[in-house]
Amino acid sequence: MTLTELRYIVAVARERHFGRAAEACFVSQPTLSVAIKKLEEELDVKLFERGGSEVSITPIGAEIIEQAQRVLEQSSAIREIAKRGKDPLAGPLRVGVIYTVAPYLLPPLVRRVIELTPQMPLLLQEQLTVRLLEMLRNGELDVAVLAEPFPDHGLATTPLYDEPFLVAVPRGHRLAHAKPVRSEEIRDETMLLLGTGHCFRDHVLEVCPEFARFSPGSDGIRKSFEGSSLETIKHMVASGMGITILPRMSAQVEADAKGAGPICYVPFLEPVPTRRVVLAWRKTFTRTAAIEALRRAVLDCELPGVRKIDQALPDSHPGSRPGSHPASHADAPPAAPQEPARAPARAG
Questions:
Q1: Distance (Å, rounded) from C-alpha 268 to C-alpha 275?
Q2: What is the pLDDT of residue 206?
Q3: DSSP assignment string, 11-28
Q4: Rounded to whole angstroms, how far apart are CA atoms 189 and 238?
């Protein structure tokens, strides 16, 4: 039994296809198939049911593949320990980011990481929360930037910032340039939402639960319409097709203040709905210095309107760095701590 064979069976389990698994492992399909057959003969069990267009995993195969994943992760940890002896920040860091954060956080973050730790390039992946969690568990990612809440599955987490929500309306809308609003004031509007699977969609529906389904008697796209990205939805708002709720960093508030943009951004009344953005990683991941470097880089970025949270990593050594008090890097005026969107949403 070899680590290479274990990598092959994990790849087949992930791809459910021998050809795609071979491509992912950069070998020919016959090479991969022969190696897996050799392993099955050595173990005297059948790992996969071959037939049809998709490969299925046998019950005993599922247990063996799960153990193989742990073995591969531990073997990778040995390499990381050796690297850490030379430079704890040496080598790439595989970072996943949810779609509604990536376009607004990554440009300043990548620049800052290059300045602070050029020896640690970021390998970036944009995905939905459920996929990022799966990639973390499988060892395909080292760390992910997620918005709470999510099922942690034993992950370690540390908060980065709290981000308030705004209502985005077309210029000329009745709410444009209005005072802060309550969620009740937008119940009769055409709400433009992200599609199912986006965690920010769930955040919006907690603020305005009445948009969770089409209402009887609604006409056309009234009440809800699903878009593929925040930028797509913003263009639809600018065209007068409806309104939406956005996280603060995606909003061009400065252009709105100058009257230069096609969208007006209206704040919520207190308590303002927010989301908490965090770093999440496997508790077995050994490069905690790299996680800390990434966290510091986020705190050093200019992130308009959010309340940054400077909090020590879990199980970090006391005195390893100065300060662990929230909001010591705030870009927004000091404010009372806000809960994630779900708490004020229920109140509204």
A1: 14
A2: 66
A3: HHHHHSSHHHHHHHHTS-
A4: 15
